[in-house]
Design brief:
heterodimer; A: about 500 residues; mainly alpha; two-stranded antiparallel ribbon; 2 strands; B: about 100 residues; Helix Hairpins; 3 helices; elongated
C-alpha cells in the first residue's frame, strides 16, 4: 500500500490529531486539570484551523474513492470556522456542574462528527459517502441526549435517532437501486452509467427520489423537516447550533456534488423539477411556521428550514456560480446563525429563559446582547449593509445564471418569501427594543468566551459582506476544481 | 426450478415495504426499531442480489452490504441506548406518551 496518499488528506489527518490529543487529555490527565479541557480543545482546534488554511493538495487517493480539490478545501475551511465558533460558545456550558462530568465526550463527539462531514464532502464513492454520513449523524443523536437532567433532551434524541435511521435506510435503498441499474458505486463511473441508460429509466428515477429524500432529511427540506423543530428545541443549545449550521452546510455541499456528478445527465428532465418543488415548499412552509413560534429555539429551527431552501437555490443552478454562491451563503449563514444562537445560549446559561416574550426590554438591560441579536436578525433577513444581503443577492444571481424562465419564477418566489421572513425576524428586534417590560432579564456579564464568539460573529456579519474578495476567491477556487460539472 | 433475480427481489421489496408500514403505524419504539431493521436488511439483500445476478465478476455490492450491516448494528446500538434513556424517565416507550415537544 502506498502510504504517501495520506498526504492528500491533510485536513482530515490534522482533525484526527486534534481529536486524539483531546481524547488523551480527557483520559489520562488528573482530575484537577480537567477544568481546562474546553480551553485546551479550543486552542488546539484554533491552531489546527489556521494550519488547515495552507494551500490545498489536489488529487485522488484510495482507489479514487477520495478526492481533494479546491472546492472541498474551501468547504472544509468554512466548516472549520463554524466549529471553532461553536466550541468557543460551549466553554461555559461544559463547565456547568451537571455537564462537566462528561465534558470530554462532548468535544470528542463533536470533532468526530466533523471528520464524518469531511469524508462526506470529499467522497467520490457511495460507500465512503455513507460511512461519512453515518459518522456525522449517529454521534449527533448521542449529543442531542446530552442534557440528561432534562426530559426534553431525551425526547429530542429519540426523535432524532428514529428519523436519522429511517432516512439513512431510505438513502441506502436508493443506492442499492443505483447499483442495480449501473453496476458501480464510483461517482465518475456512475455518471457514464446513468448517461448510457439513455432517456428516462424508471429505476434510476426512483433511486434518485430515494436519495433526495434520504439526504433531504439531513438538510431538513420540507416534506422531510418534521423532526427539525422538536430536536432543535430539546437538544442542548450548543448542539442545536452545531446541527443547524455545520451539519446542514456539509450535507448541502455533498448533496450538490452527488446531484451534479452522478445524476448530472438527468438534470434537465428530472431532478431540476424535483428540487424546484422542494425549494418552493421549503422556503414557504419554513417561513409560515416560523411566524407562529414563541420559543426562540423553535423559531430559529423554522428559520433554518427556510434558509436551507435558499441554500438549495445554489444547487438548482448546477454550475460554478451556483456552487460558489452556495458556499458563500453557508459561510454567511454560519456567522449570522451562530451570532443568534450565541445570544440565546448566553441568556439561557444565565437564567434559562428562551421565549421571545422573555426578551422584552432586553435593550434596556443588556444593550450589547440586544445589538448582537439585532445584527444577526438583520443579516438572516437580508437587510443591505450586512453580509446576509450579499449572500442572498449572490445566491439569486447564481440561480438566475441558468437563464431559464422557470428559475426566474423560482427566484421571484424566493424574493417574496424574503419579505415575509423580515416580518418574523423583526418581531424579535421589536421585542428587544420597543416592548417595555417591568421584569426584563437582569443585567449580566456573559462569559468571556461567549463574548469572544459573539465578537467574531459580528465581525463576520459586517465584514464578510463588504470584503468582496471572499466571494471572488470562492468563485475562482470552484472554477479551478477539475471535472465538477462535466456531466451537466 | 431455476431461481431468477425477480424471485429474490420481490421478497426484499416486500420486506422494505413492511418496514416502512411498521415504522409509520407502530406506537412502541422498540417495534419501530425492529421495522427500521427490516428496511436496512432489505437493502443488504438487494445489494447482494444485484451483485450475484447482474455483476457476478466484481465484489462491490457484497462489500457494501457488509459495511451496511456494520452501520445498521451501530445505529441500533445508539437507538437502543437512547430508548432506554427515555424509558428511565418516562417509564414507557409508547410514542403517544412521549410528545411533550410539539408545535
Amino acid at each position: 500500500m502506498d502510504y504517501s496518499q495520506f498526504l492528500m488528506m491533510p485536513q482530515e489527518i490534522g482533525l484526527l490529531a486534534v481529536f486524539l490529543l483531546v481524547f488523551l487529555y480527557d483520559t489520562f490527565m488528573p482530575r484537577t486539570t480537567q477544568r481546562a479541557l474546553p480551553l485546551v480543545t479550543v486552542v488546539l482546534f484554533g491552531v489546527y484551523m489556521t494550519w488547515a488554511f495552507l494551500p490545498p493538495s489536489m488529487g485522488k487517493c484510495f482507489g479514487d474513492m477520495f478526492e481533494a480539490n479546491n472546492a472541498t478545501w474551501a468547504m472544509k475551511n468554512i466548516l472549520n470556522i463554524g466549529v471553532f465558533i461553536v466550541l468557543l460558545q460551549s466553554v461555559k456550558w461544559t463547565n456547568d456542574d451537571f455537564v462537566s462530568v462528561r465534558r470530554g465526550e462532548f468535544y470528542e463527539l463533536i470533532l468526530l462528527t466533523l471528520l464524518g462531514m469531511f469524508l462526506m464532502v470529499s467522497a467520490r464513492h457511495f460507500l465512503l459517502f455513507v460511512i461519512g454520513l453515518e459518522t456525522a449523524s449517529l454521534p449527533l443523536a448521542a449529543l442531542a441526549a446530552f442534557e440528561k437532567r432534562y426530559y426534553e433532551s431525551r425526547e429530542a434524541a429519540a426523535k432524532y435517532v428514529m428519523t436519522a435511521v429511517f432516512s439513512s435506510a431510505i438513502l441506502l435503498m436508493g443506492l442499492s437501486l443505483v447499483y442495480g441499474a449501473c453496476g458501480t458505486l464510483y461517482f465518475s463511473n456512475l455518471s457514464f452509467g446513468v448517461t448510457a441508460t439513455g432517456g428516462v429509466n424508471w429505476m434510476l428515477i426512483v433511486a434518485l427520489a430515494f436519495v433526495m429524500a434520504g439526504v433531504g432529511f439531513k438538510i431538513s427540506l420540507v416534506p422531510f423537516h418534521l423532526w427539525t423543530a422538536d430536536v432543535y428545541q430539546g437538544a442542548p443549545t450548543a448542539v442545536t447550533s452545531y446541527l443547524s449550521v455545520i451539519s446542514k452546510g456539509s450535507a448541502a455541499f455533498a448533496f450538490m456534488v452527488i446531484l451534479v456528478q452522478v445524476f448530472g445527465s438527468l438534470y434537465q428532465e428530472v431532478w431540476q423539477w424535483m428540487l424546484y418543488a422542494l425549494i418552493v415548499l421549503t422556503i414557504t412552509v419554513g417561513n409560515l411556521f416560523a411566524m407562529r413560534q414563541r420559543n426562540l429555539k423553535r423559531f430559529l429551527a423554522f428559520s433554518s428550514v427556510s434558509q436551507a431552501g435558499y441554500v438549495m437555490l445554489g444547487v438548482i443552478a448546477a454550475n460554478e456560480v451556483g456552487m460558489a454562491s452556495m458556499m458563500y451563503y453557508i459561510l454567511v449563514y454560519i456567522f449570522s446563525n451562530l451570532a443568534a444562537f450565541g445570544v440565546v445560549m448566553a441568556i439561557e446559561n444565565h437564567c434559562g429563559k428562551v421565549t421571545i416574550d422573555d426578551y422584552n426590554g432586553l435593550f434596556k438591560t443588556n444593550p450589547w446582547l440586544a445589538f448582537t441579536m439585532m445584527l444577526a436578525m438583520f443579516s438572516l433577513g437580508g437587510i443591505p449593509p450586512f453580509a446576509g444581503f450579499f449572500s442572498k443577492f449572490f445566491i439569486f444571481v447564481g440561480a438566475a445564471s441558468t437563464g431559464s424562465v422557470a428559475i426566474y419564477v423560482l427566484v421571484f418566489i424566493a424574493l417574496v418569501n424574503t419579505i415575509i421572513s423580515l416580518y418574523y425576524y423583526l418581531l424579535v428586534v421589536k421585542a428587544m427594543f420597543i416592548r417595555q417590560e417591568e421584569c426584563a432579564i437582569d443585567r449580566f456579564r456573559s462569559h468571556w468566551t461567549e463574548r469572544l464568539a459573539m465578537v467574531i460573529c459580528v465581525a463576520g456579519i459586517i465584514f464578510v459582506g463588504l470584503a468582496s474578495c471572499i466571494y471572488t476567491s470562492l468563485t475562482k477556487l470552484v472554477e479551478e476544481s477539475p471535472n465538477l460539472f462535466l456531466m451537466i | 426450478m431455476e431461481l431468477t433475480l425477480l424471485m429474490y427481489l420481490i421478497p426484499s421489496l416486500i420486506m422494505f415495504g413492511c418496514g416502512i408500514y411498521g415504522f409509520l403505524t407502530r406506537k412502541n419504539m422498540i417495534a419501530m426499531l425492529i421495522s427500521l431493521e427490516l428496511m436496512l436488511n432489505a437493502v443488504d439483500i438487494n445489494f447482494a442480489l444485484f451483485n450475484r445476478f447482474l455483476y457476478p465478476g466484481k465484489l462491490e455490492g457484497m462489500m457494501f452490504s457488509l459495511f451496511a450491516i456494520a452501520i445498521a448494528a451501530a445505529e441500533t446500538a445508539v437507538a437502543i441506548a437512547i430508548i432506554i434513556n427515555v424509558y428511565r424517565i418516562a417509564k414507557n416507550v409508547d410514542i403517544n406518551q412521549i410528545n411533550k415537544l410539539k408545535f
